[in-house]
Amino acid sequence: MSDVRVHNFSISLDGFATGAGQSADAPFGHAGERLHEWMFTTRFWHEMGGGREGGTGADHAFAAMHSAGIGAEIMGAGKFGPPGWQDDPDYKGAWGPNPPFHTPVFVLTHRPRPSIEMEGGTTYHFLDASPAEALKKAREAADGKDVRLGGGATMIRDFVAEGLVDHMHLVQVPIVLGRGVRIWDGLEAIEDVYDIEAVSTPSGVTHLTFTAKRR
Amino acid sequence: MSDVRVHNFSISLDGFATGAGQSADAPFGHAGERLHEWMFTTRFWHEMGGGREGGTGADHAFAAMHSAGIGAEIMGAGKFGPPGWQDDPDYKGAWGPNPPFHTPVFVLTHRPRPSIEMEGGTTYHFLDASPAEALKKAREAADGKDVRLGGGATMIRDFVAEGLVDHMHLVQVPIVLGRGVRIWDGLEAIEDVYDIEAVSTPSGVTHLTFTAKRR
Ligand SMILES: NC(=O)c1ccc[n+]([C@@H]2O[C@H](COP(=O)([O-])OP(=O)(O)OC[C@H]3O[C@@H](n4cnc5c(N)ncnc54)[C@H](OP(=O)(O)O)[C@@H]3O)[C@@H](O)[C@H]2O)c1
Ligand SMILES: NC(=O)c1ccc[n+]([C@@H]2O[C@H](COP(=O)([O-])OP(=O)(O)OC[C@H]3O[C@@H](n4cnc5c(N)ncnc54)[C@H](OP(=O)(O)O)[C@@H]3O)[C@@H](O)[C@H]2O)c1
């Protein structure tokens, strides 16, 4: 069966994947852009349309795993848009007219709406469904390829708790946020089900990979 | 002035420095010995009297900083003994007749008692005092050498919050404990006052060092 993968999911030392006070102007709340600065200096980011030319070192190698072999993404309502987007019937997501997904994207929300076709191969579908049901739909759409879980922390925790995630790549950034949504809550003893590796890189971040143990 | 240093302070991925349910038989509660296994395989630990011969790689290099140049330690009541030790007037600490400190040790407690002289140069003094006052006493006893903060997390957080800590070495172990005493609480934006480095080693842990920025 195809794999379920998490990539480039950035957290603070204290485990927060977003700060407090998310809004349209501050998608990560008081964290600002600090959780993702490590990625902005990679060639991967440049190839996604980002500014600088970027390096091809370890940060790039990890970041570039994001896209290969992915046939669909599942994301939470909090990644799709800022709090309250559900009240705007014309809202098309925080990711611009040509979103960086280029596959079907399943948005988990308790207030689903009709699908939206965007430029570049991204189509948003809205689902009010359990993690297992959502994954079934995404797998069908992915047509044999892997499914990426886009975050945020809330939905990733739910999928991990149900044993649905094969590979997870977290990037720990050396800041302490103190407030926000924490990835670790409810994941006690995750080391029993995943092999965990840690690799620090010269940019100062530590890449944590979680590979599901063969059951 | 002499430095205030934290060494070999081990935490889980989710930041817990001890598990829940501490007792005489389980000084780290449900964490067991997992927070310190990385240290048991170092030459440093062997030289402290531990079993195996131990390696001299990066884990050893970090661990061995523990003792050099230290003239006194300050520890919290929770490191001195299990919950309730204060009710036993003859209690002499969880660290055996010849404790591994070999200097004056100041134990912070709201129920102080007379000093206890142990073998090997360790003398326990008991203090009900603010961090700054306790540090003043420890500095006098250290006679120009550095002061080590022994932990647990509760007392280290208090000293960091008051800006009293010059160097901090944490060791992040790839387990998620879920419960216990967390180091990060109240340390938001610690990156503004410390230069932070991360180094992962082949044993799977990540050494985090915090060096106070020149003010
Ligand atoms: N650090 C990173 O790398 C990273 C990556 C992605 C996102 N983020 C950030 O993380 C934040 C969002 O994360 P988050 O944890 O707050 O939220 P999230 O995981 O994106 O979304 C959670 C929300 O999705 C809906 N939902 C989740 N599961 C559902 C289900 N099974 N059925 C129906 N609806 C479901 C619910 O919203 P409703 O009840 O409102 O429908 C729920 O509150 C944003 O700030 C985003 O920028 C960070
Ligand atoms: N992970 C590691 O590397 C590491 C290192 C050291 C210890 N530990 C573990 O951590 C645990 C203990 O940590 P902890 O955070 O629970 O407690 P702790 O920091 O050792 O001690 C906190 C206690 O010390 C007393 N205290 C602290 N500041 C004081 C002050 N200014 N004046 C008077 N009393 C003061 C208070 O006890 P009273 O009110 O009872 O007097 C307070 O509850 C133990 O399980 C230990 O094994 C782990």
Any chance you could write out the topology, listing elements then pairs?
The structure is a homodimer of 215-residue chains.
Chain A: E1 4-12, E2 16-18, H1 37-40, H2 43-47, H3 58-64, E3 70-76, H4 77-80, E4 104-108, E5 116-117, E6 123-127, H5 131-142, E7 146-151, H6 153-161, E8 167-173, E9 181-182, E10 194-200, E11 206-212
Bound molecules: NADP nicotinamide-adenine-dinucleotide phosphate (NAP) (2 copies).
Could you please describe the fold and organization of this structure?
The structure is a homodimer of 215-residue chains. The first copy, chain A, is an alpha/beta fold. The first copy, chain A, has helices at 37-40, 43-47, 58-64, 77-80, 131-142, 153-161, and strands at 4-12, 16-18, 70-76, 104-108, 116-117, 123-127, 146-151, 167-173, 181-182, 194-200, 206-212. The longest helix of chain A is centred in the middle third of the chain and has 12 residues, at 131-142. The two termini of chain A are 14 Å apart. The model of chain A has no long low-confidence stretch (mean pLDDT 96). Chain A binds chain B through residues 13-15, 172, 174-179, 182, 184, 186-191, 196-200, 204-206, 208, and chain B through 13-15, 172, 174-179, 182, 184, 186-191, 196-200, 204-206, 208. The complex binds NADP nicotinamide-adenine-dinucleotide phosphate (NAP) (2 copies). One NADP nicotinamide-adenine-dinucleotide phosphate (NAP) binds at residues 9-10, 17-18, 22, 27-28, 35, 76-79, 108-111, 128-131, 150-155, 158, 181 of chain B. Chains A, B: One of its GO terms (molecular function) is 5-amino-6-(5-phosphoribosylamino)uracil reductase activity.
